[in-house]
Inverse folding.
């Protein structure tokens, strides 16, 4: 059996070598801290400065890292110890990961591997290995096509709020497939670049509707008579969250299509709704909307102003897929467009793989068997720790 | 361009314009010792001695308001009592807030708000239901200006935001202005050179010096054990200054971890000029994980404090990465740390 890390490192190096013209450096590369993860022994190397794109390309080919990262912040001297550098600002960054979205069966496939006896399970009772009883279990999650579409919707909604509410122009926003379970959004060269952690915390709370009380203090006040309530209830075109919540209320609770509604008509609908539905139900449906409509970003990513973030157009060590810039999100299919490796068949031993899809081809399920797979699928499973290579391509 | 009349200057005696106005009178400190300024001195005493301004100080007085304000600034500076600077700045800010709230001329109101806040202030005309928004400011300016206001009402998630602007009601913008006035007056006195006060007015300085000192803070704990970042904030509390949102968060997590009780911490905050026991208690309990999300917050590490501009690293910090390791490393001096 061929040693796995060695195999992957060779494959990654070959990819970088053959595709080096597709690599481009993030803007102001020399002001950013660069870090990378090595294959074996797995080690994080940080505090690197790269002067230009050439140095980045050389690093990728030379080191063939498992994963590559860049700081979202700009520093005077990125390789100095963190307390000795001058922080000059940071891009706004957002991470939408299927892990943070409400769980749906169809979004992700979970596989559990016992670290003690290597048994593999598709569901886990009592957090314990059912063959040896060990509690040391690693979880592998494979996103599905549906799941990634679901996350896509979230990133589009995020983008719209940044544009509409925060006045960020669209050309400063870049969206990426993260290479694994979701999407990244960055804002470069914006007015918000120098904002501190406090601001970023406020921004995160705004997006996640954390601490949202606007409705509780106004319309969700029991003492307002129905007549008045239907007059003051916000309409769908109001600014900010209030308008979005109202829009969802009309569409999903009252159940009308909002094409060219006029105010008076909407107010009559409200009057009718409020006079038939008890207060409690109104409250519940608004709370439900708020819960559905909030943007589920990973707050830790957005608020950490010294974060290192996966570098665009590089390989993700846990999937072998690319972190890929998206130019037209409506026509981007991560499980097609982010594929780096070839169709060349390779023989691998698969300990377990569920049915999965890559490049519109369906594979699996496999269990303890030797399979001939296209390189892209083989590397995908090897990266996840579900297969072992039996030959070099 | 003279937008403000004499009456406006009396309401807002801390504005730059008043300095020119007073300069024109060509007075020196010695002049105040003459009897014709007795009324000015009387009003100055009121400003100096009240822990809350009495209604009298809210009745405008053309002849004495500006001069008594100016004189009070000088006397307080001479007294070198930082807690009195805080009280005075707070009282003046409250007084100005009152006049802003009752300002009938919107042009003047907008002009003064712009001048005070020193940011772009847009007049808007927007209503949702019964809520009426008259002003908008940029969200970044807003977050800075509101950072010492702790109620969730001020979080941006509870504001109407569109195209980078936060929509505000008149009284909300005035409230933000009040904080700014406080800071400006505080800074002005703090940064001024210490004046020489004529013998005859020295008694005013003594009055201030003899004002009771607010109850001792943070007693029963040796300050030397705290890292510079924590010390800095505790000193700020001692001198009665408002803390930023993050300073308050950090020091609360820090003191909780050091075993201080919620009561002790709330008590510590009680010298802050806009202290509200109920709110302070709620917040400390929240951070302690007894409220709201029931999440117990950790003490931020050095990296985070640094990025917040709160790290005051000195040699004593050695190479620690967390302020809680400060004391450990220090008392552990017998061990030679490996390279
Ligand atoms: S190095 Fe750490 S402990 Fe020392 S002042 Fe900075 S934040 Fe505080
Ligand atoms: Zn097992």
């Amino acid at each position: 059996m061929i040693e796995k890390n060695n195999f992957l490192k060779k494959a990654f190096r070959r990819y970088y070598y053959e595709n080096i013209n597709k690599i481009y450096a993030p803007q102001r590369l020399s002001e950013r801290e660069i870090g990378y993860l090595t294959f074996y022994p797995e080690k994080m190397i940080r505090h690197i400065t790269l002067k230009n794109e050439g140095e980045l390309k050389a690093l990728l080919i030379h080191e063939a890292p498992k994963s590559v990262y860049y700081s979202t912040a700009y520093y005077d001297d990125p390789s100095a110890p963190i307390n000795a550098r001058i922080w000059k600002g940071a891009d706004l960054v957002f991470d939408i990961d299927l892990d943070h979205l409400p769980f749906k069966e169809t979004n992700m496939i979970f596989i559990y591997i016992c670290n003690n006896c290597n048994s593999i399970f598709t569901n886990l009772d009592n957090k314990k290995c059912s063959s040896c009883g060990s509690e040391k279990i690693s979880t592998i999650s494979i996103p599905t096509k549906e799941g990634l579409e679901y996350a896509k919707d979230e990133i589009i909604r995020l983008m719209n709020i940044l544009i509409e509410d925060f006045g960020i122009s669209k050309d400063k926003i870049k969206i990426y497939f993260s290479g694994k379970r979701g999407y990244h959004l960055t804002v470069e060269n914006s007015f918000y670049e120098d904002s501190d952690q406090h601001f970023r915390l406020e921004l995160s709370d705004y997006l996640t509707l954390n601490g949202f009380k606007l409705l509780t203090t106004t319309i969700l006040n029991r003492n307002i008579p129905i007549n008045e309530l239907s007059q003051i209830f916000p309409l769908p075109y109001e600014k900010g969250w209030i308008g979005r919540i109202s829009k969802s209320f009309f569409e999903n609770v009252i159940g009308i299509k909002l094409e060219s509604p006029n105010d008076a008509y909407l107010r009559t609908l409200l009057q009718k709704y409020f006079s038939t539905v008890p207060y409690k139900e109104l409250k519940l449906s608004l709370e439900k909307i708020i819960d559905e409509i909030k943007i589920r970003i990973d707050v830790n990513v957005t608020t950490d102003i010294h974060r290192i973030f996966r570098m665009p157009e590089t390989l993700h060590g846990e999937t072998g897929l690319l972190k890929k810039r998206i130019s037209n999100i409506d026509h981007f299919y991560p499980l097609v467009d982010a594929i780096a490796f070839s169709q060349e068949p390779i023989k691998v031993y698969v300990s377990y793989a569920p049915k999965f899809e890559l490049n519109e081809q369906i594979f699996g399920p496999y269990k303890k068997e030797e399979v001939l797979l296209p390189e892209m699928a083989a590397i995908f499973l090897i990266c996840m720790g579900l297969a072992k290579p039996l030959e070099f391509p | 361009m003279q937008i403000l009349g004499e009456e406006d200057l009396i309401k807002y005696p801390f504005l730059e314009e008043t300095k020119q106005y007073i300069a024109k009178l060509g007075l020196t400190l010695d002049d105040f010792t003459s009897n014709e300024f007795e009324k000015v001195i009387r009003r100055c005493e009121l400003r100096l001695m009240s822990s809350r301004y009495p209604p009298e100080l809210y009745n405008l007085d053309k002849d004495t308001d500006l001069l008594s304000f100016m004189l009070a600034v000088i006397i307080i500076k001479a007294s070198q009592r930082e807690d009195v600077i805080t009280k005075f700045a707070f009282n003046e800010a409250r007084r100005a807030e009152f006049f802003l709230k009752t300002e009938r001329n919107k042009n003047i109101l907008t002009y003064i708000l712009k001048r005070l806040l020193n940011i772009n202030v847009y007049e808007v005309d927007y209503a949702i239901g019964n809520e009426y928004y008259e002003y908008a400011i940029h969200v970044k300016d807003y977050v800075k200006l509101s950072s010492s206001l702790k109620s969730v009402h001020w979080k941006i998630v509870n504001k109407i935001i569109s195209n980078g602007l936060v929509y505000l009601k008149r009284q909300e913008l005035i409230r933000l202005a009040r904080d700014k006035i406080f800071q400006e007056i505080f800074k002005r006195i703090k940064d001024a050179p210490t004046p020489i006060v004529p013998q005859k007015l020295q008694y005013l300085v003594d009055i201030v010096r003899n004002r009771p000192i607010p109850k001792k803070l943070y007693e029963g704990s040796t300050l030397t054990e705290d890292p510079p970042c924590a010390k800095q904030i505790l000193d700020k509390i001692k001198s009665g200054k408002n803390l930023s949102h993050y300073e308050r968060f950090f020091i609360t997590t820090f003191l909780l971890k050091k075993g201080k009780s919620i009561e002790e911490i709330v008590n510590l905050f009680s010298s802050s000029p806009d202290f509200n026991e109920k709110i302070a208690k709620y917040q400390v309990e929240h951070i302690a994980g007894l409220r709201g999300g029931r999440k117990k917050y950790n003490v931020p590490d050095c990296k985070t404090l640094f990025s917040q501009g709160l790290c005051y690293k000195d040699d004593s910090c050695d190479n620690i990465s967390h302020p809680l390791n400060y004391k450990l490393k220090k008392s552990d001096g017998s061990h030679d740390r490996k390279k």
